[in-house]
Amino acid sequence: MSLRPLWLSLLLLCSFSSVAKLEEFYIELKDHIFVPERIELPANKKVKLIILNRDTTAEEFDSFDLNREKVLFPNRKAVIFVGPLKPGEYEFFGEFNPDSARGFVVVKEPSDVH
């Protein structure tokens, strides 16, 4: 019996378990407004951003700064992985309602994140 398949299985299991342990941060979209408008994330860490669309219409999460784009279906949640990022502000917006659906990811050193 070869150990290679077992080694590959263990490697995949470790990879999946590390994704499951990522810190999660939540944003809601309601009445075409992201709440909170500013969310703080830790620097130099990959995190899971969970967006809950409470509206009855779709929206598209867009961020040139984060290099992310994701359709947010009505009354559903979407997951976006971001990072690791350097400290700073990263803008995001809703493509279908760019005047109201706007926000910022504020990346800080982990000791400064509230």
UniProtKB/TrEMBL annotation:
Signal peptide (from-to): 1-20
Keywords: Signal
InterPro entries in the cross-refs: Cupredoxin (IPR008972), EfeO_Cupredoxin (IPR028096)
Ranges in a coiled coil: none
Name of the featured protein: Cupredoxin domain-containing protein
SUPFAM superfamilies xref list: Cupredoxins (SSF49503)
Matching Pfam families: Cupredoxin_1
The organism's place on the tree of life at top rank: Bacteria
EfeO-type cupredoxin-like domain mapped to chain residues: 7-107
Species assigned in the record: Pseudoalteromonas phenolica
Signal recorded as keyword: yes
